[in-house]
Amino acid sequence: MPDPQAAVQADTYALRDLSFPRVLARQVAVRPDKVFLTETAGGRRFTYREMDNWSNRAAHALAGFGVTRGSHVGVFLGNCAEHIALFLGIGKLGAVSVPVNTAARGELLRYYLSQSDCESVVVEDTLVERLNEVLPDLPGIRRVMVVATGEAGAAPVRADGRPVADFAERVAMSDDAPCGQDVRCSDLLMLAYTSGTTGPSKGSMLSHAAALTYGTSAAEAQGYRASDVFYVCLPLFHNNALLAATGAAMVCGASVVLSRRFSVTRFWGEIRDHRATITNFLGAMSSFLWSQPPSPQDADNDLRLVSMAPTPKYAAEFEQRFGLRAMNNYGLSDFGMVTSFTEHDPRDKLGSIGRQRRGFQVRIVDDDDFEVGPGEVGEIVMQSDEPWRAATGYYRMPEATLAAHRNQWFHTGDRGMRDEDGFLWFVDRKKDCIRRRGENISAFEVEQIIATHPAVANAAVVPLATSNNDEEVGAVVVRRDGSALDERQIIEHCQRNMAYFMVPRYIQFRAELPTTVNQKVEKFRLRQELERDLSLAWDREAAGVQVQR
C-alpha cells in the first residue's frame, strides 16, 4: 500500500489553488532541493527550485519579447527541459500554450498555427525549416523564438522582417516571479489539438484546473507518491506526457525522467538506470516490448505501475514477466481523464477501463441519450461535478462544442459497456478516427490533404486493424479521368503535407467509392473488404517506400 507520508492525495488541493504557478510554488516551499526533472540525453538535472527559477526567467524572456496575458504561443518543440520551462513560463504569464505535434508539416502545421491564433512561436532549431515553409502564409505570427539543440546544420528562420530571438540569450534574466499576474484556476492555459472526426482537428480549451486535474485525480485513483519516479518517453506535445505524467508528478512532489522518444532498445536500460517506478504506454508500445526475446533481467527493474492503453490480452503475463502491475486510465483530450483501473482492482477485470474517478460521472447511453443497462453497449458520455475540471470546449468552434455537449453530457464518440460489477469496458469508436502508434489520426484530415492533389477526384481513409493491437492508415482513391497517378506519387504528396505517422500505408485505386442513398461513403464496407484481403491494396512497407520523419 502507498506510504501515507509519501502520498499526496488530490483532495489536499483546493480547486481555486489549481494553477501551475501555485502548485509549483507549493512544491518549492516543501521540497526545494528535490530533483524534479532529469533528462536521459545529456543528464541535465533540475530541482524544483531550479525549475521554478528557470520558468520565471522564461516568463520574463517571453514578456520582454512581446508575449502578454491571454496571447497564444505555439510550442513547436521535442522532449527537452526547455519545453517544460517554457510551458510553465507561459502559464505564469497568464498566456496560452499551443503544443504543436513535432511531426506536423505543410498544410497541417499551417492549420494548427492559424486556427489557434498564435501570435508567437517557440521552435526547436531542428524544426525551423518546417516552420519556414509555412511562415509566409501566417501573417498572424509576429515573432519567433528559437531553442537551440546543439545539432549541426540547423537552418536560420526566414522571418520576413519579424523579430527572431534565441531562447538561451533571452532567458538570462531575473529569477523573480513575473509581477502582476494573478493566474486563476479558471484561466485558459492551453489548446490541446485533438484529431478531427467529421471535420478538421479541434483545439480543446483547458484551464489550469482542467490541466492539473489530469494529475490530481490520477494521483488519488492510482496512489501516486512523492517517492515515485515517472519515466516519460511519450511526446510532451500530447496531454498524456505533459499532464497525465509530468503534471501528475508535480502535484505529488515526485520526479520525472524525460527521454527524447520511445525506443525499444533503450527502454529497459533507462528504466533501470533512473530507477523509474511509473510509466505510461500508448498504442503498440507494450506489443513492441512484449515481442522482444525474454531475458533473465526482465523483472530487474523498479517499475511498480504501468498504464496500458489499450490493455493487451497478454497483460497478466506482461505483469508477471516484468514484475509490475498494469493499470489503465481512460479519457480524451477533448474533456479529460475520467476513469481508472487500478492495481487494487480484481485481476479478472484486467482489460477494463475501470470505474469513474471521484468528481466525475460516466454513463453508457443509446442514440437518444437514455442510459442503457449493464451488459448493453452504448456511447460513453461524461460529466464533471465541479467547474473548470474538464475542457471547456473547442476553440473557435461553437457548433462542434455544442454538439459534443448535447444534453449537458460530453459525448466521447466511443462505445462501451458497464458490467454487473460496475466496471467499464471500451468496445470501439463511433467516430472517424484512426489510432496508430499512440497517435490519433483524423481520417478527415488525411482525406482532405489527399484530395488537394490535382489528379485525385475523391478519397476515403479508413483504419485497418493489425495483429499487434494497432491500426494502419488505408486510403481508397479515385483518380480524375485520364490520370496516371500512382501510389508513390500519393505518398510523396502526403509526405509534403502531413505528419509522417498520418501517411497511408495501404493504398487502393477504385473507379468510384461505395455510397449510401444519401451519398455518404460506406467506409465500413471499404474497411471490411480490405481487412478481409489486404492484398487488394498496395502496401507501402512491402514496396520498400520509407517515410521520412
How would you describe this structure to a colleague?
The protein has 15 helices and 26 strands. The strands form six sheets. The protein has a nine-stranded mixed beta sheet with strand order 2-1-11-10-12-13-14-15-16. The protein has a five-stranded parallel beta sheet with strand order 4-3-5-6-7. Helix 3 (81-93) links the parallel strand 3 and strand 4. The two termini are 43 Å apart.
Structure, briefly:
This protein is an alpha/beta fold and 549 residues long. Helix content is 28%, strand content 25%.
Helix content estimate: 25-40%
Strand content: 25-35%
Report the total helices. 15
How far is the first residue's CA from the last residue's CA?
Answer: 43 Å
Number of domains: 3
Spans of at least 5 consecutive residues whose pLDDT stays below 50 are 1-11
Mean pLDDT: 91
List the strand order in the largest sheet.
2-1-11-10-12-13-14-15-16
| Class computed from helices, strands and strand pairing | alpha/beta
Q: Can you tell me the CATH superfamily of the largest domain? A: ANL, N-terminal domain
Main beta-sheet annotation: 9 strands, mixed
Shape: globular
Reading off the top of the CATH hierarchy, the class of the largest domain is best stated as Alpha Beta
Structural Rg: 23 Å
Q: How many E-type strands?
A: 26
Provide the CATH architecture of the largest domain: 3-Layer(aba) Sandwich
The CATH topology of the largest domain is given as Rossmann fold
